[in-house]
Amino acid sequence: MQPSRIWSEIDFQKDGKATGYLRVPISTNASAYGWIPIPIASIKNGSGPRVLLIAGSHGDEWEGQIMLIKLIQSLKAEDIQGHLIILPGANAPAVQVGQRVSPLDDGNLNRSFPGDPNGTPTMMIAHFIEAVLLPGCDLVCDFHSGGSSLEYLPSTVVIAPRSDSQLRQSVDLLRVFGLPVGFATDASTGGDRSLTGACDRVGSVLCLSTELGGGGTASRNLLRAAEDGLARVLHHIGVLSAAPEGSHSGSTQLLYRVRPADFVYSPANGLFEPFVTLGDSVGDGQEAGCIHFTEEPWRKPVTIYFGMGGVVLCRRFLARATLGDCLFNVGRTWTPQ
């Protein structure tokens, strides 16, 4: 793999706590020899697991960004054993404008791996993560939510592992994190171009993700639950020296999200009226909602149906919908073998 053109003042091999920037080179009319700042922290204390924590791959997903900003400020090197690398706003140009993709190149970071060291800014960031940060990692935690357009049932997520040992470890982590729902999905929404694909290429690095609400906001209660869940996971794998306060006593419902081909999509442009809400159990062929027509208010609405039933994991947050927008997806009961 070609060397990255991104550089940083941080020595990732050095013990202690260091904060600074990844510098992504860019040349524009306004800045001929400039660089894009990507905030990063390295917290290292002796030998132990190496964990990469990422948020802001999509710039309008705020919950994980808030979590990791707080973690950078609160953790000291003596609090851990091993190495934490924290990237709270991975696609910084998208974070700055509050959009899913980068305004510089329309780059979706979680669809840009393995990246390109000589490509667009988003491709350079993806390449640096895969070529420099991922090697040697034992675990990656990648924090997502529904962003501006979607709202998710608060969930911990894994891509269905390819080996039995990874499956057992992944299910353990879902349960340790402790959100009410943990779901598995295939790789069809991101495939090899996602961070999970990068983890597989680097050497079967475990990858745990989340869907923490959405709708362009952040819930205090959900943030607290996710912060506690991350602390449990880091203690479970031996990075956090002290056990988190309290204990998780609830159970995690395990689901398998249906394929994108089985999501519910808008059949027309109009106003989306949902008939169900997050967490509802729905049947095959059940009415999901309808689309109303503002320009033809006398026209009858178009009813939308679930193809496959299950638990409603995700819904469109915005009422205005266009042809092809995802309106719902569901998860079905998952019993890992």
Radius of gyration from the alpha-carbon trace, in angstroms: 20 Å
What is the CATH homologous superfamily assignment of the largest domain?
A: Zn peptidases
- Terminal CA distance reads 36 Å
Return the average pLDDT rounded to an integer.
Answer: 94
Q: Decide which structural class fits the backbone.
A: alpha+beta
CATH-assigned fold name of the largest domain: Aminopeptidase
DSSP helix fraction: 10-25%
Element pattern in H and E: EEEEHEHHEEEHEHEHEEEEEEEEE
- What is the CATH domain class of the largest domain? Alpha Beta
Q: From the 3D coordinates, which CATH architecture of the largest domain would you assign?
A: 3-Layer(aba) Sandwich
Characterize the biggest β-sheet.
15 strands, mixed
Features:
alpha+beta; four-stranded antiparallel beta sheet; 31% strand; 15-stranded mixed beta sheet; OB fold (Dihydrolipoamide Acetyltransferase, E2P); 6 helices; 337 residues; Aminopeptidase; 19 strands; 2 domains
3D structure, described in words:
The structure is a single chain. 21% of the residues lie in helices and 31% in strands. With 337 residues, it is of the alpha+beta class. The chain folds into 2 domains: 250 residues, 3-Layer(aba) Sandwich (Aminopeptidase), CATH 3.40.630.10; 72 residues, RNA polymerase II/Efflux pump adaptor protein, barrel-sandwich hybrid domain (OB fold (Dihydrolipoamide Acetyltransferase, E2P)), CATH 2.40.50.100. The protein has a 15-stranded mixed beta sheet that branches. A 4-stranded antiparallel beta sheet has the order 16-15-13-18, with no helix packed on it. β1 and β2 form a beta hairpin. The chain starts with 6 loop residues before the first strand and ends with a strand. The mean pLDDT is 94.
